[in-house]
Amino acid sequence: WWNDTVFYEILVRSFMDSDGDGIGDLQGLTAKLDYLNDGNPATTTDLGITGIWLMPINNAPSYHGYDSLDYRSINPDYGTMADFEAFLAAAHARGIKVIIDYVMNHCSNEHPWFVAARQNSPTYRNWFRWAPTKPDETGPWGQGVWHWNQSGWYYGLFWSGMPDLNYDTPAVKTEMLDTAAWWLDAIGVDGFRLDAVLYIDEDPGLLQTTPATLQFWQDFNAHIKAVEPDALSVGEAWTASSTVVQYVSNDRLDLCFEFDLSYAILGAVNGGNAAGLGG
Length: 279
Fold this sequence. Notes:
The protein has 279 residues and is of the alpha/beta class. Helix content is 29%, strand content 12%. The strands form two sheets. Strands 1-2-3-7-8-9 form a six-stranded parallel sheet, with helices on one face. Strands 4-6-5 form a three-stranded antiparallel sheet, with no helix packed on it.
């Protein structure tokens, strides 16, 4: 169905404020659905979109939400789970599919899992990667990836506020796959936009596209398709197309963003020369 769908990306926080507190919310989004698609193909006053991608809606300490505090929650700034379910029903009634951002690579350093891990919880310590001394390792754009707190050095690709989950621990994979199934089955979303898919597993000297990362996405897609065969998985693999193709091969993800093409389009427009689109 996604091949015939026009998606509209929404950061709820900045879309429509229903209660005058200066923050967009789910009730505001629901109230504006007729602007996006009123469900009547004969009208010409709506945009006519048929899919919505919601940027992170989980509770999180940041404005953007890519540092989840609870993967089965709604950010209270946006409303309640009941508000989300009402929005979802209203969208579906208008023929609009809804996918949500699922940020599986990392969570917030304020997430209860990480709080327990830094307190040396035997249950959660290995849900993250730790080292007694700082490893000699940097990230793909030269950034520091090992961060200090009172219980040791921990790995976080993007910054210290987003520790990476450790998928070498089976309980982590089980919980995150079960959460995906819950959003599909119990709540009724139509799929997921998957953040930072390149970095689920890291090996010494290789941070992106490891064999375990590719296997993880194959397992993930099999899991969600068993729950909902029509669920969409779309990955953010921000790298060359020659690498991205691995993520949409062998029954891994359904789609990935095509960054090389986007750069070629921008280059053609800005330079007035379409030669770069020929590749």
